[in-house]
Amino acid sequence: MAELSTIARPYAEALFASVRNEGTLEQWSALLSEMAQVAGHPDVRETLKTPGLSNQQRYELFAGLMKTPLSDKARNFLELLVDKGRVLLLPYISEQFDALKHQLEGTELAHITSAFELSPEQIADLVAALEKKFGLKLKPVVTVDATLIGGVRVMVGDQVLDTSVQAQLARMRDTLAA
């Protein structure tokens, strides 16, 4: 069976190609993120899988859960996904759409996980240092994880920079065990 991200790729690429010259990439990114959240909710997933529902009922149910009003193009896209049975792929479609948007902009997401809450100044300083290291314009996504004990873990694309105390302790444990 094909990977879900592989199945989602043509939908993300087609949508991206159709809206990239409209200047609405940010709005579509936000809309797809909201759609992905709705599609990712366990109750929604179960309800959409109900065999007795028609595609029109699935569409109306999903559209009714959206906070953002849907444009004609958004309604058409959602109807296509419902008709093809691909609405549950929205988290993957959103992710791949954002990757295409970042590629076009020459940016990359930096997933920063810190043991403690970082101030805006600390985030700006860290992002500046990371941009120099990776040679990319980075957009930070910051989360807090107390299990790191101290330090930060940064993921940019498939690269990981882990300076957390937890990682240092794990390296020490591995060295002592060897």
TrEMBL record:
Keywords: ATP synthesis, Cell membrane, CF(1), Hydrogen ion transport, Ion transport, Membrane, Transport. It is found in: Cell membrane; Membrane. This is ATP synthase subunit delta. The gene is atpH. Its main location: membrane. It is a peripheral membrane protein. Belongs to the ATPase delta chain family. It comes from the Bacteria. This protein is part of the stalk that links CF(0) to CF(1). It either transmits conformational changes from CF(0) to CF(1) or is implicated in proton conduction. Gene3D superfamilies: N-terminal domain of the delta subunit of the F1F0-ATP synthase (1.10.520.20). SUPFAM superfamilies: N-terminal domain of the delta subunit of the F1F0-ATP synthase (SSF47928). InterPro entries: ATP_synth_OSCP/delta_N_sf, ATPase_OSCP/dsu. The keyword Iron-sulfur does not apply.
